[in-house]
Amino acid sequence: MESVKSQSYEVHLGQLAEAALKQHIAKINYSKVFVLVDENTKEHCLPSFKEMLNHPIDHIFEIKSGEEHKHIYTCLDLWKQLSNFDGDRKSLLINLGGGVITDMGGFVASTFKRGIDFINIPTTLLSMVDASIGGKTGVDLGALKNQIGVINQPQMVLVFPEFLKTLDPRQVTSGYAEMLKHGLIMDAEYWQNLKTDGNFTDASCIQRSIALKNEVVLEDPTEKGLRKILNFGHTLGHAIESYCLENPNKKTLLHGEAIAVGMILEGYLSHELKGLPKLSLLEIKDVFLQYFDLVEFDDNDIRAILQLLKYDKKNSHGDVNFVLLQSIGTAVTDVKVPVELFYKAFAYYRE
């Protein structure tokens, strides 16, 4: 299976990934090799990774899993550990885990000693098809998603689809939401294949999602224009994810679960404002509700969620900018939405 070439690095899959890692480690004389894991990847992924790496690891840093630990205090602890274990500018940090690990590990590496090399090895479907491309690193500010961070590229990204066997089904389905998004925003044929085939953990599907995101990132690496389309479903989805994370009365949602809601809501906005056909809107809602449970929102929830929109990273000059669909496979950016339509979108979602 071919590797995907991004800006300054490549995404390698399967056997190519193992060969690329060994070649890179042999070529670069790193002073220290560190690995970042959480308790899940330490148990389920680290043993096979160490066997495959076949190179001394100077220290393994372990953090607690979950979005609630993706904050600056965890970074402070990791920076201290890197320093305590004699990390220097010629050290390497290997991030072995899901999006929290790769986002935060990339940020820690990018800022320690003003930047050390890092390699991302995503172990969840979500991180394979989303966080593996684009160089976005960072942490949350309280419950607000990814407010602090930098764009900085890894040395390489290594994707081993066999790690997906270690996940519970809910985590795998969460990643499916991002894959469906890739089809909705730029490849109608891919959307059709994904929603009908169901074999979305196949390596060829993972590679296709990586390649689609990479096309966008190569054209717009710093999100000045086209790259914004990757945020379809995320404006409301991130607000929903943050609200459920900080509200003890709501079930905490995985990222893919929250943006699945966001894509139905923003699909409705697309129908109202950009002419997305009614049949396409119904199709989008039907597909997502096949895989994701309906989430209950009352009027108080909706008002609180809408208040969080002001923190969205795409905002400019006080305006909330949305990515919407003209059709399945075609997205438009920087759309302003009248407030009353938000309530109609939630009503449509709850029907």
Automatic annotation (TrEMBL):
A GO MF annotation of the entry reads: nucleotide binding
User: What EC number(s) has UniProt assigned to this enzyme?
Assistant: 4.2.3.4
CDD domains linked: DHQS
> Which GO BP terms, alphabetically?
aromatic amino acid family biosynthetic process; chorismate biosynthetic process
Which superkingdom does the taxonomy of this entry point to? Bacteria
By its UniProt entry, which InterPro entries does this protein fall under?
Dehydroquinate_synthase, DHQ_synth_AroB, DHQ_synth_fam, DHQS/DOIS_N, DHQS_C
Span of domain 3-dehydroquinate synthase C-terminal: 175-315
Q: What is this protein called?
A: 3-dehydroquinate synthase
